[in-house]
Amino acid sequence: MLDLLIQNGLIFDGLGSAPVRRDVGIRYGRIATIAPSLSVEARKVVDASNLWVTPGFIDIHTHYDLELEMAPGLSESVRHGVTSVVIGNCSLSIAIGEPQMLADIFQRVETLPHRLIAKWLKKSFSWQTPAEYLQHLQQLPLGPNVAPLFGHSALRAYVMGLERSLTVPPSKFDLKIMQRITADALDAGFVGVSIDMFPWHRMSGEWQGCTIPSQHAKFPEYAMLAKLCRQRDLVFQVTPNLQKLGSFVDILRMGSGFGKPLRLTILSALDVVHDRNLWRIFSPILLIWNRFLNGNVRFQTLTEPFTIYSDGPVSPLFEEFPTGAQINGCQSRKEREKLWQSEVFRRQFRQEWLNDKHKSFHRQLDLMAVVDCPEVSWQGLSFADIAHQKQQEPLDFFIQALQNYDTDLRWVATGANDRLKPRLAMMQHPYIFPGFTDAGAHVRNLGYYDGALSLLKQAVTTNFLSPEAAIYRVTGEPAQWFRLDTGVVKVGAKADIVLLDPKALNQPISPQVLISDPLLDGEPRMVKRGSDEIVQAVYINGVRVVCKGQVSDRLGYERLGTVLSPY
Question: 370 and 248 share a domain?
Answer without folding.
Answer: no
